[in-house]
Each structure stands twice: as C-alpha cells, then as structure tokens.
Amino acid sequence: MVTSGKPGQTVKPESLVTSNEGGIKKKPQKKPFDTMNNIVGNLLLNLTSSARFEGSLNMDLNEITMNLVPFPQLHYLVSSLTPLYTLADVNIPPRRLDQMFSDAFSKNHQLIQADPKHSLYLACALLVRGNVQISDLRRNIERLKSSLHFVSWNQEGWKTSLCSVPPVGHSHSLLALANNTCVKPTFMELKRRFTKLYKKRAHLHHYLQVDGMEESCFTEAVSSLSSLIERYDELDATKDLPIEDQRRLNIVI
Questions:
Q1: Which positions of the chain have pLDDT values less than 50?
Q2: Which of 243, 248, 236, 245 is nearest to 118 (CA)?
Q3: Residue ranges of region Disordered (predicted)?
C-alpha cells in the first residue's frame, strides 16, 4: 500500500490512478530478467570486492579455486547472498550480524534450489564486507559448524575474507561459496531432461549441422555427467560415518 500523505487515504499500486498529466497512469513495464540480473550483479560485486577495495583479510579468485576445489571434477560451487536484495528493494531492514551468517546457510538464501545444511560440505568460503572483525567471523563459524556436515578429511575447510567497504546502503553483507553435494539433484534433473529429449532425438539435427559436432559428443557428455553424479553419491555415503580423531603431526624443533 502506498500512502498519499493524508491520514486514512491509501492507494494500491495496482490500481489506475490519474496522473498529473491528466491521462491514465500506466504501470511501468519491467524487463523479465531485471530482478535476476540484479541479484547476479550483487553477487559479482561481492565476489570481486577484495580486488577493488582494501581489507584486513582480502582474497582473490585464485585462492577460492585453490581452497574450495579438492578434486578437478568437483568444481561446482553453491552461492548464497545476504542480504538478498535487488536495486528496486530500497529501505530493506538491516540484518543483525549473527542473523546474516545464519541466513547464508539457509535454503532460502541459496541462488539455486538446494539445501546445503542437509548435505555434505567439501569446503566453504565466507566473503564479508563492512565493519566486521575477525573475531566475529571465528565466533559465528564456531557457532554454526556443529550443525554443518563436513567431510571427515576436511573438518576445518573454511576460507574467509574481510573487505572493509560495505555495499552501498548497507552496513555489511556476506557472500558464501560452498563446495557441497547439494548440487547433485540439479545434475540428476539435468540428466533426466536430456535423456527424455535424446530418446526422441529432438533438436538433435541442429547440433549435428555444426562442423566437428558428432552424435558421440552427446553420449560422452551424458557419461561424464553420470560419472559426476556417482562421485557425489560416494561422498554422500560417508556423511553419517563416525569421524575419527586425526592425529596431529609432531613438529620437532
């Protein structure tokens, strides 16, 4: 509801209101992907903030790849952003710092349809912007990690980044990047849709007209996808296994 400035008078945004020009005010037409593009743009701004601004603990893209991808085949990262907003979302209420960390691991803030909290983490990166201290990072990681499932051989698989410059209009923000087995259903659905079309050989002729493209390329692609799903299945099978205490190395001085 939009108030007109006078007590007791409200106007619905969907209603037809006479404009100052004497005509009928038309609803502004939105482009269909503006909201989605705004969210992706905010994600990229947070991802590259360490390269553009100063911070006490900056992180570049090479460090993300180095720390979050333990195996070449398993390089698909799940991203979540908090606060989750677009350019049209003005005056959104600020989030408390601890709530922001909790939101980053909830399924409602993931940018794909997934629930990482009930799947297995291989590694996780937290990119924070704003007036946040390293002690705040450590405290929230300790608070949350008991509810998250990490692989037994990488229980301390966290990578953190602090950028002192917050997003415009916000005191702080958080981008979480996770290498998590929750992406497996996405690949399974992709394989199901592909198989459904491939059995009918639908749209196949468009691709076979391209030089160098052969039908064997499709079978190789689905075989690679099946292999990827199997790797995630193997990791998921270890989720409920007891974690053995790893012996620490004794460093002789």
A1: 1-25
A2: 236
A3: 1-30
